[in-house]
Specification:
By secondary structure, the protein is α/β, with parallel strands linked by helices. The chain contains 11 helices and 19 strands. Bound molecules: flavin-adenine dinucleotide. Flavin-adenine dinucleotide binds next to helix 1, strand 3, strand 13 and helix 8.
Amino acid sequence: MKKISIIGGGIGGLTLALALQQKAIEFQLYEQANSFEALGYGLQLSPNVVRIFRKLGIENQLATISHRCLGFELRSFDSDGILAQWKLKSDVPYYQCRRADLHQLLFNSLEDHSNINFSQPLESYQQEDNQVVLNFKDKETITTQALIGADGVRSVIRGVLFPEDKAEYAGYAAYRVILPFKDDYKSLWGKATVWMGENHHVVAYPNGKGGQKISWLNLVLVIKDSNWQEQSWTIPADKQEIARNFTNKSALLNNILEDLVNNNEPCYKWGLFIHQPLPYWSQGRVTLLGDAAHPMLPFQAQGAAMAMEDAYILAECIAQKEDIKTALIKYQQLRLKRTAKVQQTSKNNAQIFHATGIKAMVRDLGLGLISSVNGDLLNQKTAWIYNYDVSKN
Ligand SMILES: Cc1cc2nc3c(=O)[nH]c(=O)nc-3n(C[C@H](O)[C@H](O)[C@H](O)COP(=O)(O)OP(=O)(O)OC[C@H]3O[C@@H](n4cnc5c(N)ncnc54)[C@H](O)[C@@H]3O)c2cc1C
């Protein structure tokens, strides 16, 4: 019987737990927090990840906590108009939901919670021939057959595998907030909207609880900022600073920013960091998954999606291979190339969103032309990400 230990109960760790449960593979999950934090901001779940919910048998439940995105819109900070818009072409939905609701759904979908262990921060591990020894803070050591590091962007396990790996500040700060959805924002319904400006951009999309009932507007505001910020998701932001930093000529965006300043919803700021793709993730009985393996800039909205793809495929490999070490190598072979390409694409998008001067003019003209002639060309840019099916490897 294989005994798997998962470190981290984030989106990747919980998805792995669900996928292993589906295959009746024994596991224990260790989470450092006392309980799951209800971080309220939004997540976009593109068709490649919705296919995983389908396979896990929880797509209908996902639909009840999500708003369905039918297309995309690009706008400019310099005008009130729309630069480009196109409909998503996919037979699988694209959803937008609150992270806390998604987390709760994954957790509630586990049949047995007795193998989810809270308040268990892993401090270190030692790999032996037939087992891995796990050392938790102020707890007894535990032995396991395989160790999966789903412990996020500041992974302890990545730190052991790659002590030299360092994050490089990307030069961007991001603010994140959700606002109660108002009638004034109606034109944002059914889509993801990006306002682009010199060295900054804003992403806005509705979040809903209960199918089409929209309750929230999710905002991510990104700006070039040369000051180093801590790589944390919970540093409170100064809302007046946001209003100053995002001056623009769009009546709708100004309305939203005014609401943001006057609203009591918490708003967080953090620095964005670049991690180079790792050469491998699996070493013997240990591997990495999600942000621990491939932290990425959020400019393609694929971090959680890649964590879930990793988790589903890792569970498949563990189920198919008798030997755990072979399973972990197979998993890495299936995932390294795709996740590195998504990391790079997310990075490249910053250049597009934040273009200045003549480059911005060419971008705006080009996008407008393409979307008016054949919006499908814009769908083709993301087809390799969204059309991916985890079960067809
Ligand atoms: C601004 C922004 C917008 C984003 N938008 C999207 C989006 O729209 N769509 C999308 O797909 N992705 C998005 N992402 C990315 C996404 O949020 C992450 O990629 C995803 O949450 C990674 O999941 P994970 O399970 O790997 O890590 P995490 O969710 O960080 O989970 C790691 C878990 O491990 C635990 N842990 C850490 N260390 C230890 C330890 N030593 N011992 C025990 N437990 C430990 C932590 O407490 C945590 O629960 C966005 C990210 C940002 C910054």
